[in-house]
Amino acid sequence: MGDHQPLPRGPEPGPAALACAELPPLVQVAECELLRRRTAAVARGEAVLLHLGEGVAPAAAAGEDALGERFETLVQLAGVMAYVTALPVVRIGWTIGQGAGVRSGREAYDSSARVLGLVRAAAAGRLPDRRRIRDRMHAFVTGSERGAAHRDRAAEICRGLAFLGACGVEPDRLAGGEFFVGHECALPEYEAALTRSGGADRHAYATSGHLMWLGEGAGGVGGPLVEHLARIRNPVAVGLGPATEPDQVLGLLDRLDPRREPGRLTFVVRAGAGRIRDLLPVWVEKATAEGAAVCWVSDPVRGNVGRTTSGRPGRRFDRVLAEAEAFVEVHRALGTHPGGVFLDTAGQSVTGAAADGAAPPDGLLSGDQSLDLVFTLAEAYRRRARSDAPLPRNDAAAANGTVNPTPSRARRAERSRSHSGNPRSA
């Protein structure tokens, strides 16, 4: 039995928070613990993570058909990654109850419950068939020069699906199984109200989502939201951008992952195509030297805001691709595992969206752009697997019968006192 973890003590709850505390949990404790095991596998290099986002528009604003399209996109993109990388894919769709779009805990709860209901219905009733997958692949590879570059690999996947069908395994098996949701923490009272204890050791878990995101306005490592996240067992995601200093990475590790548990922390890299080769090696080496087994995830969309070739504001898709490939190449050079990708995607084909290398006007990738990016990223994984790169450092240490050194508690405590600044995320 592990140490008993009391429920986090947040701010004194007001009437609205007390009302939320009486509501059922949005997700189950067992599901959160399952995601902990899955992210641990990603951190060890045994799986990859695929997280879909929705840009500036909360998922709750989407209709049933749009959410169904996004679920199909999640299944298809995960299938491509699994086929090309030969690794299990941890699927995280949507970020429910987004802080930027809600003003109260009850509003966050209601919007989250609606999205979860629609997504679960899509998972149960909107299952892809081989013909629809094949038709979508065909439209992708024949619709643009970029798509044509992936023709051979797409044909391989379609032949693989045909083989599965001949063996009696239909694609609905791909849609079934596990999927998880993220949640950006923004309202301390709401987070405290939806915290429950569970599991054999009665640990505290957030039930507002499976993967907890530390929002950009959360304050320093001593802020109330960080304090809350430090006391729950859910896996936690934090964005790292050009303004993130190495010492801030260390401060986050010490506060949110003091035991250095694999998969506890996911660092989402938003460095930009022009900075990633300079910034990512420093962050990875700092974390590795601390004995941390972090999930490293690329978010190549949000870090590449600029002007398109036509002069319109947007995200240059060529730079999005460049950052994703650089992410894998840096990890290959360091001997560490590129854990996965976060994509803001519309979940459907947007006609003409990629004509000048731009994402759609709202900043979401179209369905075709998402497929292009995942094919490109997966091919980079395959090249990495064929290379003579060394074992990931944690694996190499295990093979030698050693473990990475973990700083003493006294050293961590001393350093945490010095980290009073804001761990900025992009």
TrEMBL record:
GO molecular function: 3-deoxy-7-phosphoheptulonate synthase activity
EC number of this enzyme: 2.5.1.54
A Pfam family this chain is assigned to: DAHP_synth_2
Region feature Disordered, mapped onto this chain: 384-426
Pathway linked to the protein: Metabolic intermediate biosynthesis; chorismate biosynthesis; chorismate from D-erythrose 4-phosphate and phosphoenolpyruvate: step 1/7
Binding site for phosphoenolpyruvate: 270
Catalytic activity: D-erythrose 4-phosphate + phosphoenolpyruvate + H2O = 7-phospho-2-dehydro-3-deoxy-D-arabino-heptonate + phosphate
Keyword Chaperone belongs to the record: no
Keywords (A to Z) from UniProt: Amino-acid biosynthesis, Aromatic amino acid biosynthesis, Transferase
UniProt keyword Translocase, yes or no: no
InterPro entries, per database record: Aldolase_TIM (IPR013785), DAHP_synth_2 (IPR002480)
Top EC category: transferase
Any one Gene Ontology BP term: aromatic amino acid family biosynthetic process
Family to which the UniProt record says this protein belongs: Belongs to the class-II DAHP synthase family.
Official protein name in the record: Phospho-2-dehydro-3-deoxyheptonate aldolase
